[in-house]
Amino acid sequence: MPPVKPCLLERTVQARVWGGHGLRELFGIGSDDGSPIGETWELFDRPENSSRIRGGGTLAELMQKDARAVLGARTRPGHGGRFPLLFKFLDAQTALSVQVHPDDAQAAAEDDGGKSEAWLVLRSSPEARVVRGFKAGVTREQFVGAVGKAAIEPLLFSFRPNVGDLIHVPANTVHAVGGGAVIFEVQQNSDITYRIWDWGRERRLHLDRAVAVARVEDGSRQPTVPRSPAPEFAK
Description:
Order of helices and strands: EEHEEEEHEEHEEHEEEEEH
Distance between the termini: 44 Å
Number of strands: 15
Structural class: alpha+beta
CATH architecture: Sandwich
Shape: globular
Strand content: 25-35%
Number of domains: 1
């Protein structure tokens, strides 16, 4: 079968407690009722739903028909034979939870794939922060003693992201983003998130599972800056 012809996918818009109006301001993307949104899924192939193709059909149907035609000869399908990546826009006007994702081997117990991800920063307010890993010298014992508490905050390494930064967040890396950042995220096709701390909000935490998969490491390595960031994002 020849490669699949280019096609347009319909996005899904999702409300989140940390969302805002940044995607509407940047790209005209918003909810039908004008309420804040946290993220859009631009390309996805999950068990419960899949990207709809403009004109008919779904990405899941294409993958089931001939994954090789969709992916090419050198790319393997993801967990369950699905498209291996998921693309999102995130509008983090307040902070996402401090969280961690498992790798492929650890996620198999939940019948899903692992989750490494990468972020391209599209907007960054003066208050925006990215958490990635821990400050130098933090020990695993300190981390375990602080999970689920505000005491974890001074252990985390954070920095203000700049527009155009590319930030790699491998599976097992403790991370968060928020306070006025809009990012484009490319991630492995997984929907497993273990929350460690939610800044005092009342959402469920997943402390035992987070401790089991989290890697305690110095997070101070710098993000990558593309040589030629898109000028329309440099605002």
